[in-house]
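Give me the fold.
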Amino acid sequence: MKNIKRKIDIEEYRLRTEISDDEKSNILYNLIFLKKKANLDEYIYKDIKLFIYHYLRHLKSANYGYDNINYDKILTLINLLPLDQKVSIIDYIILNSTKELPEVNQNWFLTKKHNFKIEEIFKLKKKNKYIYGIFLICGKSTTNLLLSLILIFILINIILLPAYNASFELFKITYEIYSDNFTINHILNVLTLFVDLDNKLTITPNNYFGLLLIVFGKILFAILLINFIYIKISDKILTS
């Protein structure tokens, strides 16, 4: 332990006397891991911020640009932090990379930020934010949005299927005929609900529960789209 603390003192002296951003970032990188070994975790967040500051300034001054950002190196440092500090450090990185390297594509950082937020909510069991976490999962990327909409489409298809016992049916449905196959025709009719096609399809709730399901489905569909747009606008503001 004494040997590690001696190394820390040496590196901190070098940090104070060094001028180059490149050398400062290298010293800080080593210093962070030394402090981690010495269980000086309370200083790591500050040192990572300093590392990011000097590292980005070095890339800018050397004209390396975003193509030479070592994302693995940055992620290695971020993973040394507790969950509740990861989102904060990513915000700091985005702010500084936008300033120092405006041409940089921020998608990698934004994706990590969303992933860390989701991880923080569910791993730390922040139950009051579970719904927010679910919507963040659904809206953090175009792929996730499409998968969410496909899942809703499948659920709606299942819910609208006729029950074996007519007394259990939630809806009275009049179909437009697109196919002689009932299943295919059912799916095609449900699909027209999403594109607002003018046809003979009618869905009438048989009870209040059926009505609530229709209202909930429409609201959920709208929320998913609005949530996706909100996340993208928020990301754009953060990186502009």
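The two ends are 45 Å apart (CA to CA).
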